[in-house]
Structures
1.
Amino acid sequence: MGVDTSLKGTLHRRGLRMTPQRQLVLDAVRDLGHATPEQVCTKVQAVAPAVNITTVYRTLDLLEQLGVVQHAHLGHGAPTYSQHEHRHVHLVCHSCGKVDEAPTELLGAVSERTLSEMGFRLDATHVALSGTCADCLERNDPDAADDAGTPETPEGGP
Amino acid sequence: MGVDTSLKGTLHRRGLRMTPQRQLVLDAVRDLGHATPEQVCTKVQAVAPAVNITTVYRTLDLLEQLGVVQHAHLGHGAPTYSQHEHRHVHLVCHSCGKVDEAPTELLGAVSERTLSEMGFRLDATHVALSGTCADCLERNDPDAADDAGTPETPEGGP
DNA sequence: CTCCTTGCAAATGATTTGCAAAAAC
DNA sequence: GTTTTTGCAAATCATTTGCAAGGAG
């Protein structure tokens, strides 16, 4: 370890500049765990109302290029940003939208299989597993809690 | 089986109407495997140029409500639509964007674990696993093809 | 003939871009 | 002082909605 890993150092090594906005965005991402650009913006604006959402987008892109944060697609809507050190698999309930987290080792065996069988290296932290959380399972389907294959066919008649 | 499974029958049972557009959209989804609304639209317009993309969006929504197609989020951009009968897990390469498919049983053990440990029922077909495909692995990283878990952890102390 | 469905145009929501002013080095 | 960064407004892209005309049953 001889490399400067501070945000300031990382920026300076590339001829980029340290600004309060960049620190605030990074802090917000750290704080929120996995948040959309808009959530990050709201958090930042709680401290510095003048910061524009444009800057948040630009800064998130930049921090990702620097390898300081990463984004994952949790399902239907916006990408969410978090830090590499929070390595976990996201479990998104597509009924209530809740995001659970599971240890990446959950996918260890799967990862090995895709690598050896198809040469595909999984990035577990970028994955969002979709399904139905415990609460919604009970709420919608009190006794079919052991079947993982039957599609539910939602109703939508006028 | 006594239930009419044709699109026309499914529609009629709910008081909805069969139209050429709906058949075309369904054919396009079947044909394309997993396609974004825009790709479906392009395919449909190859046959019927007058069909509006609005209709494609509306029809995809409808077909999904009917349980005829489903959508999955494959990563960065648009959702993609496919058929329930093609039950597979998507493996998306976030380097080249290629989409591979794996049998859903790949996630069987994971599914059992999330269900018993967290009460979370996975929907394997809705899942997109992200990572690096064999081609891109070799292209970028010719000899590190056996590591699926060691992170480089960027630091940033307050 | 009666409602459902479509096409169009305009509304919306999220993200990006151009540019001059402000800030960092 | 020079170059990067920011804020704002306008542009863009994807998706949705209102409404009148067109089509299915």
2.
Amino acid sequence: MKKNITIYTIAEEAGVSAATVSRFLTGKAKVNESKRRKIDEIIKKYNYRPNAVARNLSNQVTKTLGFIMPDVTAPFYGTVFLEAERVALEMGYSILLCNTMNDNVLTNTNVEMNYIDFILEKQVDGLIIMGGHIDNLRTAPEYLERINTLTNQIPLVMINGEIRGLDCYNITSDSQAGINQLVDYLVSLNHEKIAFIGGYMDIQPTMRRLQIIQESLGRHGIGFNDKWFIEDDFSVQAGKDSMEKLLRMSDRPTAVICVNDMVAVGALHTATKMGVKVPEEMSIAGFDNTYLTECVVPEITTVDLQPKKLANTAIETMIKHLEGNMTDKKEIMIKTQLVLRDSCSMAG
Amino acid sequence: MKKNITIYTIAEEAGVSAATVSRFLTGKAKVNESKRRKIDEIIKKYNYRPNAVARNLSNQVTKTLGFIMPDVTAPFYGTVFLEAERVALEMGYSILLCNTMNDNVLTNTNVEMNYIDFILEKQVDGLIIMGGHIDNLRTAPEYLERINTLTNQIPLVMINGEIRGLDCYNITSDSQAGINQLVDYLVSLNHEKIAFIGGYMDIQPTMRRLQIIQESLGRHGIGFNDKWFIEDDFSVQAGKDSMEKLLRMSDRPTAVICVNDMVAVGALHTATKMGVKVPEEMSIAGFDNTYLTECVVPEITTVDLQPKKLANTAIETMIKHLEGNMTDKKEIMIKTQLVLRDSCSMAG
DNA sequence: TTGTAGGCGTTATCAA
DNA sequence: TTGATAACGCCTACAA
């Protein structure tokens, strides 16, 4: 049972009080030059590091941000997280990450709620939530209630969440612009039979995208065939399965917009395997502009959601808030933009 | 400045002492049924959660594991992390993740060393390190020194690290079996001109894999042409560039083993774009068996490193150690295995 | 079964 | 500029 090296160990050996060592450590008050050197020496001798737990308790601040998301493993989420971590670190904060993917997306909100409690117990200074139940159209009432009380307990930033009337910051991808560009582009390529695959109907981003597509098509006087909305999840496998369904139809679309790049990659995979040439016989477009789009041939045309921008806006907004530089703007939109690659061409 | 709700708030209102509330919370001692109910009621009324920071300080234990890796965004690492998080959570631990990717892989070890200090300050109970400098053949001496002292400060588990003589647990992929299978397979397909691309020469996994390939080929009486080892990093782009170099050679290999799946996907991308048919004209194999291999056409033959097994072995070993159920086995090998898909065929 | 008191490692206040 | 001392919120002997 060897004793911990604490600020007292250092103080004693340096012949000063703990308070002085503390001042040396925080740099918040002057310390005599000679004592300063002595303290520094002892600290090095013991390889002493201040105990962050004690420090946090004393300061009532942890310089830690909770980050809840479905799954870092998905390229889009991963990119957002990595950038968030980078920016946070730069600003002296660290991130406590929780993946809720194991939670059932459509029903059980227990995991996510437990995570929230779990994170709060750790006394994070702020909480960032991306994706997940937060944008489920039929969010369980008790969950909504929980989120609501949450906003009184801790500063909250939501990334692409959709719950209205919540007292928190919302960083949102402005899908409108990107989708309009995409639809205009497809129409300019003479596509009129356009499908939309992937995503759950119950979840806002899915519905929202579909809606905007429909409106956008409408502006060109083109209708959307409901049969060509194939609901599934957000995975590569979903893309594979959905594309297969489309290809088995007697009346096929000529272009497919996918709810994200993973689905797009899956769709491309199936089309290619079934001998349907992309883009000659079938155009495919994705969402997110993750690195996946550049892994496959043809490379996939997609809508860039600027994950890094999303991330650093979220972190900076949070930290500004925490450090008292309040922003009055609670709603921040991040532009999206069409990225042209090789997976779309003239409708056959 | 509203007051925090503490164990005292609860105690007072429930008409008991803080100690009793604490007992209720930890369940480590009996408390009278009626008081028990009263306490429970007050806790619910205030939505009270014990402060983990204070608890950690008091217990001298954080139930938190530090996890250092290069980049969660890479599918292999991401999978390992996610599984680690899952298992840890199940066992009552949480994970503090640090990505060192921003650190320059070949030179600067400062970031990684800073991360270590940073994590130690947070008083994690154990540290898990995967990839990174840890296996650089020419690790800076001061870094080695740091790692060495580290093993005296905190339990350490390394995943696929390669520093010898360190007093820590090593969870290592037994590449041998998988690679032998792969080489045997390629040779059985009549390949004799086999290339190896991606990875840094200075890093153990790269060198190790190359070595095993050479030995394995040797057993078949086949030599390895050094010109066909193309050094680069571990990215998709590396695969693209390396394949292009190979294809520009007058004397081309007929099969390419890639240091990981990302490189393999990149290699496939370039081959396809340059009109070289895979696998008919060029066989490609990867490493890791990440989901990427099933995103592309043809799907990629690869060596499965069992990332989940790696992860839960690491976590379980660590927690067993922490909770006193010492294991004497410090070196644990995880089997690897060839996974056949569609990217290899008979040498033309 | 319960309460009191001291400790976990820092920081901050107040005198000196 | 420095040193005592009292928080910070919880846990755990020890005593009752």
3.
Amino acid sequence: MRTKKQKQDFFDRVFKIVAKIPRGKVTTYGAIAEVCGIKSAARTVGWALNGASMNYLPCHRVVNRNGELTGKVHFGDIHLMEELLRGEGVEFDSDGNVDMDKHLWLPKKNKSKIKSKRSS
DNA sequence: AACGTGACTTATT
DNA sequence: GAATAAGCCACGT
């Protein structure tokens, strides 16, 4: 029943995934989007979090592919995110980016039939 | 219904 | 390697 509920499903997935992010870890929009079923809709993930602002989702644990705190603008203060993540044990780079090599956490798909097309 | 925007990503110049 | 263009999906006007 791919009705309007579909989009709600997408949002719901994002919420759940973000909520599952372990403390002291971060993930990327692309990863979330992929697990949600649309790997190419990283922007939409941001939109989901946009509505999640009123949720209890740790949006500060979601960064872009570069480990950069992109959502700071809508979140309020980048400094706040830094402190939050630092308080969780996340290390930051000299540029104020998250150390992806250490704290990058990839969500796992439960049973979604994702069609992966990893061809370069 | 159509155009424009957006917390992104990848490819090309 | 930095900057620009295009692609992607959902929402707002």
4.
Amino acid sequence: MAGERKRDQQPTINDVARIAGVSKKTVSRVINRSPLLNKDTRERVESVIARLAYVPNPQARALALRRNFLIGLLHDNPNAQMVLSFQEGVLEAIRETEFALIVRPVDRHSPSMLDDVRTFLERQRLFGVLILPPISENDELAELCRELGCGYVRMGSAKLDDDAHLVESNDRQAVGNAIDYLVEQGHRRIALIAGPDGFRSAQERRKGFHEAMARHQLDCGPELVAQGNYTFETGLAAAERLLEVSPRPTAIFASNDEMAAGALHAARQREIDVPRDLSLVGFDDTAIAAHIWPPMTTVRWPILSMARSAALKLIYPAEAEKQPSKFLSDLVRRASVTSPSGKSG
Amino acid sequence: MAGERKRDQQPTINDVARIAGVSKKTVSRVINRSPLLNKDTRERVESVIARLAYVPNPQARALALRRNFLIGLLHDNPNAQMVLSFQEGVLEAIRETEFALIVRPVDRHSPSMLDDVRTFLERQRLFGVLILPPISENDELAELCRELGCGYVRMGSAKLDDDAHLVESNDRQAVGNAIDYLVEQGHRRIALIAGPDGFRSAQERRKGFHEAMARHQLDCGPELVAQGNYTFETGLAAAERLLEVSPRPTAIFASNDEMAAGALHAARQREIDVPRDLSLVGFDDTAIAAHIWPPMTTVRWPILSMARSAALKLIYPAEAEKQPSKFLSDLVRRASVTSPSGKSG
DNA sequence: TTGTACGCGTTATCAC
DNA sequence: GTGATAACGCGTACAA
């Protein structure tokens, strides 16, 4: 009968106290690193803790402290890689803590979305939540968190909230840098595949495009702008239209990788070679960007850093302002961009 | 001062009991649907619960019941889409329950992996865990769960455990079906890009390939088998070798989509047209399969069903055996396969 | 520096 | 059917 330590037989703080010959309050002090403790006592208790392999019961702790150590991840994201990368970053930040991450996809389009989230938050009584785009752009959701006294940090492409509740990627500037790069390569006629109006990220990327084009004094009239909704198919359709424009653009910036992949598809159907006859830039640096042919130049979010920062803001609200809020994505240069061949007219 | 209900002011079972004029045990009975309750009492209590918007505190419940309602997802997966789809399936299964999902990536290669998981399980005292491949193939991990009295269900490509602790995809048969399809299309010279030996899924897919080839009495000597480690680059390298073989294979089955994408890349570099000169089949049906050109024929796991079933097995152990354990993946037919052009020799 | 008594919100026991 | 009362494991006044 040796060696078993089943669920029902886990040692409690009382066991530790009894065996160490102290009160459980003393054990509690050891666990919580109270400074006023005799060194001998501390070491004795610690050795018993180690010997029994005692681990405090988080449920009991949560009950006594009137707060738990669960943080939620709210997302409604079509981009699996991004959600998973974010999870990874958060988990890295909380690795040495007693926090755990609980995930909750939400349906942006459901009329009961807010009620669903409310039920979830009331039931789980989370320490706080991290909210990913695009659902992070929903101000009612943030308001709900405040109302319920639930901490939150939003991730977004613009200044959605104050710095204590936000990690922000500067999509506008990142798109500007991408356009600068295309111009450096010699492109003058650059088209945009914009994302859906409802998304703040899409708006920011569109603004970044227009600002950069204006800065370079390049034409970006409506014939050079098409719109999609972040899917492969709509990217394909948008590119089909753009590739009919005369003179044909020598480069297309697509507001996400999926649409860029669709654009690549459209070019191939027309026997327009990428990158020789058409350069292509995407956004997000999803797995697809690196694994299509040609590998695609794209904008990469510093997602791990953002996730880490968001988690720390949530866990240590007092120092939330000290964590960086602004992050700049960088351009990953791959084979889908080259200098225009010169016969673009 | 009306309308606020902050974290610190949530109504408790005592509030409900006091206002309804009953004991809290009675309220508890209402919550837990005890059958022996006066109808009037029940309705009275229920109306108070509704009025106060009372929600039981899960921490207190967990403490009293000596078990919580958290299920963990253990994974070390390179395939983000699969992990997220699995999450989706699990969450669908537990939607109406009080269970929540907490995620935990693990590092398969870390020497401290088992200790890390042990710490995690002891700390969180989960109701149980769901384990995704390839880490699900680790028997020590399952043994650890049993030792800790933590429920578990593994997802795998073979009979890794008894039916109460396993949802199994029949990769061998699925690959067989894929090969059958290629043969139907007229292919006779079919090559395999196998996965890494350490993965059970890779072994099963390899067996499926050889069994099917034998069934059709086709040659599948070592010159027609190359190995990769499930990455794009190794798929590319493997295909480079296979495409040098004479007579050149007219079709390649790659053991996952990433390697298939690599093979596509290799073919393109050699100006071997897919599918005209070479048919290609992948495995997993990840996002990449549908979004490359040509769209790739691949094997799709019924991942949502498997996730649902796994979650239900975990939550209702008494009926675990009733949940299906075996799932057959099906072939998604896309443009990367066609009949061989006949000049393959 | 350490211990006692009690509270956190729920379920379980066992009377009535 | 219903209600006192005692767990569950831990934290915190406050006393010693």
